[in-house]
Amino acid sequence: MSNPFAGGGAGRPTPGTPNLPTPPTGWPIGSYGTYEEAQRAVDHLADSDFPVQEVTIVGVDLMLVERVTGRLTWGRVLGGGAASGAWFGLFVGLIMGMFSPQGASWFGPVLAGLGAGIVFGLVFAAVGYASTRGRRDFSSASQLVAGRYDVLAQPKHAEQGRDLLARLAMRPPTAEQ
Questions:
Q1: Where does the General stress protein 17M-like domain start and stop, copy by copy (predicted)?
Q2: Taking the model in full, what pTM does it have?
């Protein structure tokens, strides 16, 4: 999977290109309402031996969508802090146990790591939640979405790309797409 935030337009930097955000280049050969439809179009181009390394999918009319997943309470905050601290403490305890002297029990370092992880997880979660002073008493998940997705191709291949995507649009979608 490529990184959509890397430079170079195709998800990977090209030699000599700085890793800075750059506007996409190319001519529009298709426009789609969902990212899945744009992916399907590029997949069709690839299946048709089109030079897809010269294709870019561009999200237009970007929106940040934050979906609220629940209300935060002290119980949920402390429970989450204790759980994440326990996982980290268990990991550290297992590492310490692996390097304990020969013949010594690995059980002690694991318990010590687990206990310390829970305590630190509780403290950090409590401090973080208290610092918000009730201004954000909910949990959420954020997602960047676009109003539409344009597929661009370099000018020398744009006409061929439009023709291929026009044929795709005339086909009824199959069950596997």
A1: 29-102
A2: 0.60
